[in-house]
Design brief:
The chain has 6 helices and 11 strands. It is α+β, with helices and mostly antiparallel strands and 167 residues long. The chain has a single domain (2-166), classed as Regulatory protein AraC (Jelly Rolls, Sandwich). The longest helix is centred in the last third of the chain and has 15 residues, at 152-166. The protein is globular, with a radius of gyration of 15 Å.
C-alpha cells in the first residue's frame, strides 16, 4: 500500500498465484476498518455482494446507495470508501492477470457495462429466490480452498465469466 496525494493505494496481495480471492465482508470491515473507511484506490476489481446490509459506498466521490442482496461492481483504480455500516456479504477481488488471458478477455472486461469507466458504478439487485450468486461465490470459495492445480485457474475464470454474462 502506498499513499498518493492523501489517497492510499492498495495493491493485490503478494503471493496469490491466481490473483483472485473471495473475502468475507464482516471480517474485512472488522480487520481493516482504518483503511477501508478512508478514501483508497485499489489496483484490482471488486464485485461486492451485500447480503443483509445496505451500505452507502462511495465510489469516485459519488455516494452509491445499495440494498440488501445486491451486487456492486467497482472498477480497478476507482477511489472508494466504506461507510461504518455493519457489513454482511462477500467481495470477489481479482486482477487483470487473473481475468485477461487473451486480448478478447481484456476487451470484454473493459467494455462491459459492469467495469466500464464511462458508465456510472453498477448496482444490481438480486432476486430473493435466485440462488445463482450464492452458488457461484460458494463454488469459487470451495475451488480456492483446494490446492492449486493446472485446471484451477481455468475453472475460476469460467465461473467468473459465466456469472458476469448471466447478470
Amino acid at each position: 500500500m502506498t499513499k498518493e496525494k492523501g489517497i492510499k493505494h492498495v495493491f493485490f496481495k503478494q503471493g496469490q498465484p491466481l490473483q483472485v480471492e473471495v473475502i468475507d465482508l464482516t471480517s474485512l470491515s472488522r480487520n481493516h476498518q482504518q483503511i477501508i473507511t478512508q478514501p483508497h484506490r485499489a489496483d484490482f476489481y471488486h464485485v461486492f455482494w451485500f447480503q443483509e446490509c445496505s451500505p452507502v459506498h462511495e465510489v469516485d466521490f459519488m455516494k452509491i446507495k445499495t440494498v440488501p442482496n445486491s451486487l456492486l461492481f467497482v472498477n480497478k483504480e476507482s477511489v472508494h470508501t466504506f461507510d461504518n455500516t455493519p457489513y454482511k456479504g462477500k467481495v470477489v477481488i481479482f486482477t487483470d492477470d487473473f481475468f485477461c488471458v487473451t486480448d478478447r478477455d481484456r476487451q470484454f472486461l473493459h467494455h462491459s457495462i459492469l467495469f466500464n469507466g464511462l458508465y456510472p458504478t453498477t448496482v444490481i439487485p438480486v432476486k430473493r429466490d435466485d440462488d445463482f450468486v450464492a452458488d457461484t461465490i460458494g463454488r469459487m470459495e470451495a475451488e480456492l480452498r483446494i490446492s492449486n492445480d493446472s485446471l484451477q485457474s481455468d475453472i475460476l475464470i469460467w465461473m467468473e465469466r459465466t456469472s458476469m454474462i448471466r447478470l
